[in-house]
Specification:
Blueprint lengths: L1 E6 L11 H4 L4 H14 L3 E6 L3 H11 L5 E5 L8 H10 L3 E5 L21 E4 L4 H19 L1
């Protein structure tokens, strides 16, 4: 199983950008943690981060055919990234949306996601471990589908 781990704008600044809110882990730390857990589960993770919506879309369109699922933290694109949403939906892959902070307990605009309606679920407010939970969910779902 291959999972795309995608991170949007400003997530390259983790551990420097408001660590009280987003945690002390860098994006590299998170990618390493997810990749390590994926290896334990017999899965492969391909990571990508960009501050540009077009770059994210290009990556998704180029990598989706070789993938079985997507874990994405769209960052601010969560609230207005309609073309990102369309690219994710076009893959027909299971998608799990992740946010480090509890977006529903922050400013009102952060609780609205244009991405979540096309996802299997959303993991919010659990910090870096939320990415691992999203990965584990996708692996379990794929395993259950293989057994049926």
């Amino acid at each position: 199983m291959r999972v795309l781990l995608i991170n949007g704008p400003n997530l390259n600044r983790l551990a420097r950008r408001d660590p009280d809110l987003y945690g002390n882990e860098t994006l590299a730390d998170i990618e390493k943690m997810v990749s390590s857990r994926a290896a334990e589960l017999g899965a492969d993770v391909v990571t990508f981060q960009s501050n540009g919506e077009g770059d994210l879309i290009d990556f998704i369109q180029g990598a989706a055919e070789e993938a079985d699922g997507i874990v994405i933290n769209p960052g601010a694109l969560t609230h207005y990234g309609y073309s990102l949403r369309d690219a994710l939906a076009d893959t027909s892959l299971p998608v799990v949306e992740v946010h480090l902070s509890n977006v529903h307990a922050r400013e009102n605009f952060r609780s609205r996601s244009v991405i979540s309606p096309i996802t299997r679920g959303q993991v919010v407010g659990l910090g870096a471990i939320g990415y691992v939970h999203a990965l584990e969910y996708l692996v379990r779902q794929a395993s259950a589908a293989d057994q049926s």
